[in-house]
Amino acid sequence: IESPVDLWRQNFAVLRAQVETKETKDPLEMMQKAAAGVGVRVEISGERPKQPQIHKLFCEAALETLTNAVRHAEATVLRIELTEGTDSCTACYSNNGRLPEGKLVEGGGLGSLRRKVENRGGSMVITCAPEFALTITVPKDWSDLP
Q: Which of 18, 45, 99, 107 qualifies as a cystine partner to 23, CB 3.0-4.6 A?
């Protein structure tokens, strides 16, 4: 019998492959279904960005925050709030899990995400009080292309 963590890893691998191959289904909805299978409810509010590259970035960030919420925080709820301003799009990811003990160290996933966002004019902010939250803001003309 596979453990919930093993199932989660398999689901995550499938989801990442589907995001990378640009499936026609919404990756955020697929992530919600996969997360439910391991006991995590994903609540999404707001409108998906109209710009494909921003939507893809926000999906990648959702997968990373969900993985970390399960692996490190034992969260049961991940909230994703999407907002669009005049010149920018923002995604805020928060969860109900345990807070990091000590200083948060950005590993490979979060560090890579930060570089991708900041190298193209966006910002990424992580807070740990009163709960873990990661907020990404990118200009509407953001592109992940060099």
A: 18
Successive 10-residue mean pLDDT values, the chain, 146 residues: 61 56 67 85 93 92 90 91 95 92 80 92 90 94 68
Q: pTM here?
A: 0.81
CB–CB of 17/47 below 8 Å?
no
User: Helices 4-20 and 52-71: crossing angle, nearest 10°?
Assistant: 170
Q: Is the C-alpha dihedral spanning 3, 31, 90, 139 positive or negative?
A: positive
Listed in sequence order, the DSSP H helices in the chain are: 4-20, 27-36, 52-71, 108-118
Task: Kindly state the tokens that stand for 122.
Answer: 């966006």
